[in-house]
Design brief:
heterodimer, A: about 290 residues, mainly alpha, ABC transporter involved in vitamin B12 uptake, BtuC, two-stranded antiparallel ribbon, 11 helices, about 70% helix, B: about 350 residues, 15 helices
Chain lengths: ~290, ~350
């Protein structure tokens, strides 16, 4: 009985961690679907979001919810400017130039964050910190639950946005066929910058949701590498795939930390990633198509 | 500016474009051989380090610059080479065998990771190699019984035919010999059908395939060769640092290696050397000006990686051909001096080939 409860706890912890991976992976996928770029700095954008939230809530003493909304808005504006000012310039260069560009940006962000906010881990109090629900042997942390609920809510909002609003449909159109979208009167470049903004905003949400569980520090962006496993597992072009992939990676990671010897937990996500790439390169949700010449 | 008009196929296959060029390289080699007699121990050691990174840069250039495949996990091959060399030396195997063994094992590891991942497009390859590099880095740290874990691993001084290759000067000559050998190998490879196949794959996979090039085979060969050369560099790296720490072969080192190739200039062996020079000289330059920087920037912990990041970003945005491209432009400017025209230096507009399936 205890084992079953322990397992359930692990699965829920894993789901919570996986939701964060899924949210970061969602950022990758949104940008990849639209612009065929992969943003290796996504984890660092999340880190910056975390530090902005820290500044709002601790330094400026704002209410948690006000700080949350402002953080997302500021980080989204940052993402918009990042595309409009820097990444738009490399359109047309080979794909690995973009990979290296975003990696270079990641180093810069890390240094700037370290210079601005220091290299110590910081945190802030949230309404969910150190609270539990449940009874008896089954105790669940509010922090983990808040991550799961927050992710589900965010996905609902994004779903409605992409399928019901004019801008969301314009974004889908621009992702599917830039030229056709342009002919239909969609300002494709601005729409792409807005997609970057959404992706940065999602990363900021991930950072704020993560804050009761883990501290904010300069190396937080390393989570981004784990999120690759999530994105690849989901097929790197599928939004639900990214989330499911994240949850799978999170749960597998928790279980391997429990069942396998020490040291395996750190590499689990990488092993999952390589295994998926080797066995099923199109991911769980991708479809195989041959390229036309 | 002398234009070379090629009238025969043999001219396209020569190693040196002109006798004057060959003479320049011979003079450079002679000067390099004399360096330890002139410069102090410290500079000779630093130059040896530069050669080690130049070898790794040439290895990665073959993959990224000539075959068009990106690897973000080359530090793993450097680590495999370094530990193979150090462990075999500690077990009493002579150095003349451990050095090729290091290259061979790294090359085999490259083929092993390359074969399953090379079916993927560039992006997936970057992610897969990133994951592979991180797995190897963790294995090196956790496998204490072999690698010594965080205690580190002292590297034995190598000896060839009873002569000990000790000190900075020994490492200097050793790395110089290997660098010249690797450059000779890659230069010859690039004018052979295999090298042409690599370049064809880089320029267009589909046209290469229609010309009868076996994509998977040639990509695997490129990956294996590149990993093997990087493994050789790793073996020399072990002698350069003399004490191996398992956490030195991390993602940061992989990214530094790719940065060498990018800053130097993709698609040229000169670029790999220029990049390695830049990569080794920048920390020295930072050390010189560290105390004079304003706002306490000099004492910032992450100064070096962030500068590398900044320079990488600037190079990609403003000079995608890297230092080598800048060097060629300078040569042309001087060669044409009063007759140079601005239009000759303008960057061509480039269009990415979509990997989309439509």
């Amino acid at each position: 009985m205890d084992d079953a409860v322990r397992l359930l706890q692990l699965v829920i912890n894993g789901t919570a961690a996986g939701c964060i991976y899924g949210l970061i992976a969602l950022g990758f996928v949104l940008i990849y679907k639209a612009t065929e770029m992969v943003n290796f700095a996504q984890g660092e954008i999340m880190m910056i979001g975390g530090f902005i939230a820290y500044t709002m809530i601790v330094k400026l003493g704002m209410n948690y919810w006000v700080g949350f909304v402002l953080t997302v808005a500021i980080t989204a504006a940052f993402g918009f400017l990042l595309d409009a000012l820097i990444l738009r310039r490399v359109i047309g260069q080979p794909q690995f130039a973009v990979v290296m560009l975003t990696l270079g940006l990641a180093f810069i962000f890390r240094a700037v964050a370290g210079y601005t906010w220091g290299y110590d881990a910081v945190g802030f109090a949230t309404p969910f910190t150190n609270k539990v629900v449940g009874s008896g042997r089954m105790v669940l942390g509010m922090d983990n639950l808040s991550i799961i609920v927050g992710t589900v809510l965010l996905c609902g909002v994004l779903y409605v946005f992409f399928s019901r609003t004019r801008l969301g449909i314009a974004m889908q159109a621009a992702s599917q066929n830039q030229l056709a979208a342009y002919y239909m009167g969609i300002p494709v470049r601005r729409v792409f910058s807005l997609i970057w903004a959404i992706s940065a905003g999602v990363a900021a949400v991930a950072a704020v949701l993560l804050s009761p569980v883990s501290m904010i520090d300069v190396n937080m962006g390393m989570l981004g590498f784990k999120a690759f496993a999530a994105a690849v597992l989901g097929g790197f072009g599928s939004i639900p795939g990214a989330l499911v992939g994240g949850v799978v990676v999170g749960i597998v990671e928790q279980l391997s930390g429990y069942f396998l010897p020490a040291g395996f937990q750190e590499v689990t996500s990488n092993i999952v990633l390589l295994a998926v790439l080797i066995l099923r390169p199109q991911g769980l949700f991708g479809q195989t198509i041959r390229k036309r010449v | 500016m002398r234009a070379i008009f090629k009238t025969r196929y043999e001219q396209d296959l020569t190693l040196w474009r002109s006798p004057a060029g060959a003479l320049c390289y011979a003079l450079l080699l002679a000067a390099l051989l004399l360096v330890p007699a002139v410069l102090g121990e410290f500079y000779v050691g630093e130059l040896a380090g530069l050669f080690v990174f130049a070898i790794a840069g040439v290895g990665l250039m073959l993959l990224t610059g000539y075959t068009g495949l990106i690897s973000l996990g080359h530090a793993a091959f450097l680590g495999i080479g370094a530990y193979t060399n150090a462990i075999l030396l500690a077990r009493g195997v002579p150095f003349v065998l451990t050095l090729p063994a290091a290259g061979l094992l790294a090359g085999l590891a490259g083929v092993a990771i390359g074969v399953p991942t090379l079916r993927m497009s560039g992006l997936y390859l970057a992610i897969a190699t990133l994951a592979f590099g991180s797995i190897v880095g963790t294995v090196l740290q956790k496998w204490d019984s072999v690698t010594g874990g965080f205690d580190g691993f002292a590297v034995k001084t190598p000896s060839i035919l009873g002569v000990e290759i000790a000190g900075a000067t020994g490492t200097y000559y050793l790395s110089l010999v290997v660098l010249v050998f690797v450059l000779w190998l890659v230069m010859n490879l690039l004018r052979a059908p295999m090298g042409r196949a690599f370049v064809a794959i880089r320029d267009s996979e589909i046209s290469a395939q229609s010309m009868g090039i076996h994509l998977a085979l040639y990509k695997a060969i490129a990956f294996g060769l590149s990993a093997g050369i990087t493994g050789l560099a790793g073996a020399l790296f072990a002698h350069y640092v003399r004490y191996l720490a398992p956490d030195s072969f991390d993602i940061l080192l992989s990214i530094q290696l790719v940065t060498i190739v990018f800053i130097g200039g993709l698609g040229s062996l000169h670029g790999a050397i220029f990049g390695a020079m830049f990569m080794r000289l920048l920390p020295q330059a930072i050390a010189l000006v560290r105390d004079d920087l304003p706002f306490g920037l000099g004492r910032m912990p992450g100064l070096e990686p962030s500068l590398f990041g900044l320079i990488l970003v600037l190079v990609i945005l403003f000079e995608p051909t890297g230092i080598n491209g800048r060097w060629l432009k300078l040569k042309r400017y001087v060669g044409e001096f009063p007759l140079h025209r601005r239009v000759g230096f303008r960057r061509q507009k480039s269009y990415a080939r979509s990997e989309r399936l439509r």
